[in-house]
Amino acid sequence: MNETQKIGKTIIYVGGFELPDKNAAAHRVLAMAKLLRACGHRVVLLGITREQESVPVLQTRVLCQGFECYAIPYPKGLREWPIYLADIEPIRQVIQGVGGADAVVCYNYPAAAFIRLRRDCRRNRRRILADCTEWYNMLEISPMFKLIKGMDTWLRMRVIQKQLDGLIVISHYLQRYYKMCPNVVCIPPLVDTADDKWNCEPKPRGSEVTFVYVGNPGHKDKLAQILEAVSDTAQKYPCRLWVIGATWQDFVRLNPEWHGRTPPPCTVFLGRLPHEESLAYLKSADCSFIIRDDTRTNNAGFPTKFVEAVTLGTDVIASDISDLHLYANQVPGLYLTSDVRQTILRYTAEHEGKTGKKKPLPLFDYRNWLQTIRKLEI
């Protein structure tokens, strides 16, 4: 660490995160903010809000876990999108309002605004970095947005982020892609194990082997495959599946081949739940699922649900995607599989009637990543 790094900097973290915990981005950014704060930096957060009407950005100031936080309205109609995608004036106002900034970190930021912000930072001798946690495949989005989203992603991933002062990437897939760029560190999703939510009371459950799925099945996860496999296993061994993040109606809408059928008796669809309540179910269950295809999208990202399960001591049955294989020797309860049905059957047979004490692992506590973040030149 050089001498300039020893002096605490003021960092503006900007992106589409909705504090305090209304999307996965918020969890990522808060943990990163704590990590940077632990290095002696002052971190100011500028995210989005879906609740309040448009007001001057400096009037949105609130404190969240000790951080100054500001927000701009998330677009509600087509007329508002061009402004959201290109306007950097709120960032300028926040920088001025907090007395200046040494660096700006952009979380998966829109390309048009990114270009303007990079130019503005260069002009003001301010460093600009990115926190890159995704690389969506354009085949996975609707044709209506393919052109706009495709160009935005192409510019951000292949052009703009290669011209910055530094990069934080969430996976080794992205680290390899940006290997020719200077000042790149790889940091997975992090948590603060001192947060009360990790001490939540587990939900009541029966003696049967209990599985849980937590997520948004409309995007990455193969929930239908999980449902079929658990349902088949339930014919031989007592087991249950909690589904969090979707109702049965949501599932059928996404999987029309299930239309006219009823939920298998072993399943309970709980719909969308507050984050802390979903953690309580995750903590109570024996095993969770991360079953996804081997795609660029899934390999470039890193499943937050894996981090949460490990932190709570819950086993995980997962596809071999992203960096999960790197934790095979560190996480005894990780089962990487290409045959979901057989793995679930074997797991249920081995764990029937067992109620072993869980072993939460602090692998992803942000305090364990101080050495890594200190390699980043802010």
Counted beta strands: 14
Structural class: alpha/beta
Query: Compute the gyration radius: what is it?
Result: 22 Å
Q: What's the end-to-end separation, in Å?
A: 11 Å
Q: How would you sum up the global shape? A: globular
Low-confidence stretches: 1-5
Number of helices: 14
Give the number of domains: 2
In helices, the fraction of residues equals: 25-40%
Task: Note down, in words, how this protein is organized.
- The structure is a single chain.
- By secondary structure, this protein is an alpha/beta fold.
- It has two domains: 3-190 and 366-373, Rossmann fold (3-Layer(aba) Sandwich), CATH 3.40.50.2000; 196-351, Glycogen Phosphorylase B (Rossmann fold, 3-Layer(aba) Sandwich).
- The protein is 34% helix and 19% strand.
- The protein has helices at residues 3-6, 24-38, 81-86, 89-97, 111-123, 143-158, 172-177, 223-233, 248-254, 275-284, 296-300, 304-312, 340-351, 370-373, and strands spanning 10-15, 42-49, 62-64, 67-73, 103-107, 127-132, 166-169, 184-186, 209-214, 239-244, 267-271, 287-290, 315-318, 334-336.
- Strands 3-4-2-1-5-6-7-8 form an eight-stranded mixed beta sheet, sandwiched between helices.
- Helix 8 crosses helix 13 (340-351).
- It is globular and about 65 Å long.
- The N and C termini lie close together (11 Å).
- Mean pLDDT is 94; it is low at 1-5.
Sum this structure up briefly:
With about 375 residues, the protein is of the alpha/beta class.
Per-chain topology:
Blueprint: H1 3-6, E1 10-15, H2 24-38, E2 42-49, E3 62-64, E4 67-73, H3 81-86, H4 89-97, E5 103-107, H5 111-123, E6 127-132, H6 143-158, E7 166-169, H7 172-177, E8 184-186, E9 209-214, H8 223-233, E10 239-244, H9 248-254, E11 267-271, H10 275-284, E12 287-290, H11 296-300, H12 304-312, E13 315-318, E14 334-336, H13 340-351, H14 370-373
Parallel strand pairs: 1-2, 1-5, 2-4, 5-6, 6-7, 7-8, 9-10, 9-12, 10-11, 12-13, 13-14
Antiparallel strand pairs: 3-4
